[in-house]
Amino acid sequence: MPEFVASLLAAAAFCLTLLALNALTRVLIQIHLTPSDLGESGFLQIGAALLLAWVAYRRAPVRRTV
């Protein structure tokens, strides 16, 4: 069960981070603060979302056996 919870938290962290970074990228492109080549769901956004998902997975609760 703890493995399932950790996977669920990691998936949620990935999805929410990717949505937030895509929205931020879209806003920054609209106000001309970033180059238009920086597209949504690009390498930068997916890499950051994967990194945050990995951190969430590693910090999830762990069952300890006695």
What key attributes describe this structure?
2 helices, transmembrane helix, about 70 residues, mainly alpha, membrane, rod-shaped
Q: Report the strand count.
A: 0
> How many strands, what sense, and barrel or not for the largest sheet?
none
SS strand fraction: under 5%
Which series of helices and strands comes N to C?
A: HH
Distance N to C terminus: 17 Å
Count of DSSP H/I helices: 2
What does the radius of gyration come to? 15 Å
**Unreliable segments (pLDDT under 50, ≥5 consecutive)?**
none
The number of domains: 1
Counting helices, strands and paired strands, the structural category is mainly alpha
Mean pLDDT: 85
Q: What coarse outline follows from CA principal-axis ratios? A: rod-shaped
Helix % is 55-70%
